[in-house]
Amino acid sequence: MPTPLPIPIDFRLPEGWLPARPETAEAEEVAFAAVHPQPDAGFAANITVAGEVLPEASTLADIADESVERLREVIEPVIVEHRREVGPADAPALTQRLAFSTTVNGTHHDLVQTQAYLSLPDIENPANRVVIRLVLTATAAQHDEVLGEFQDFIRTIHSDTGTRA
């Protein structure tokens, strides 16, 4: 069962992507998942959306580190290939790219995961910040092909206050 996000958001999936049931190791934390319609070597690229209220003393880098550590609990090694903080102070974001290998349904896959962490104000309590975690997981061969679609997806995300026409 999907976990609700701490604030409502609105987004638009890239063309052709299909909503799916979350099937990741962190599925209990996932609010939404989508899969690419053309798997690579039997692995379907996927996007997951999750969120939480940012603990008071935590930074986006802390949350990203925790994600890496959770992944390392089930897969070793996990390599952080790239990490970058972006955005203005009132709407910071962090992206990181991870590489790892795993076996899915008896087939070995080299995977790449791009994670994006968006910090948004809590609609009910603006003193709090909410972190929306967006994750693209794809085979190493397909990742760069679908990365642009993931970036386009991220650009569509915004708080849904119910006031839009």
What does this structure look like?
18% of the residues lie in helices and 39% in strands. It is built from two helices and nine strands, in the order ββββαββββαβ. The strands form two sheets. A seven-stranded antiparallel β-sheet has the order 2-3-4-8-7-6-5, sandwiched between helices. It has a two-stranded antiparallel ribbon with strand order 1-9. The longest helix is centred in the C-terminal third of the chain and has 16 residues. With 165 residues, the chain is of the alpha+beta class.
Distance between the termini: 30 Å
Rg, nearest Å: 16 Å
Percent in helix: 10-25%
SSE ordering: EEEEHEEEEHE
What is the overall number of helices?
2
Give a quick account of the main beta sheet: strands, pairing sense, barrel closure. 7 strands, antiparallel
> Structural class, please?
alpha+beta
Principal-axes shape call? globular
- Strand order within the widest beta sheet: 2-3-4-8-7-6-5
Into which percentage range does the β-strand content fall? Answer: 35-45%
Average pLDDT reading: 89
